[in-house]
Amino acid sequence: MKPARKRELANFLIGAYRVSIRRATAVMQLRQATYFYRPRPRDDRAERQRIREIAATRIRYGARRIHVLLRREGWLINHKKTYRIDCEEGLNLRRKRPRRRVAAARRQERPALKTAPATAAATPLPPSAPPAAATPLPFPRR
């Protein structure tokens, strides 16, 4: 069970049964520090905007090179945060070009093969040339 859900249940115990916070958290096996914890959302709008601007001007730059540019500009930002924002914004580059799907998209329909008449299938093929002599190996065979 997640701490947020345990916190809700502890609040229910406190309200419904008029027990103390200490007893409610003990029953729920929730530490009091976790009970009093209030998550604060990250405010990284400025970093996010700058990363988008760099990625728009330098299309082929990945998260590492964008991070180096940010540090040169004086931003105090962790490389993991740069990578996280890069992924969340959908700016991360593809590692390989999707060759198969591109070729399949450009492929045209093949024309239907015409079936040969039944008499042509019965005619024998001309004799082929005899196979070429095998070249000797440069090392003895075992």
UniProtKB/TrEMBL annotation:
Which residue ranges have biased composition labelled Low complexity? 113-123
Signal sequence range: none
**Do you know which Pfam families this protein is assigned to?**
HTH_21 (PF13276)
Q: Which residues form the HTH-like domain?
A: 43-99
Where are the annotated segments for Disordered? 97-142
* Protein name (database record): HTH-like domain-containing protein
The protein's organism comes out as Chitiniphilus shinanonensis
What are the leading ranks of the lineage?
Bacteria, Pseudomonadati, Pseudomonadota, Betaproteobacteria, Neisseriales
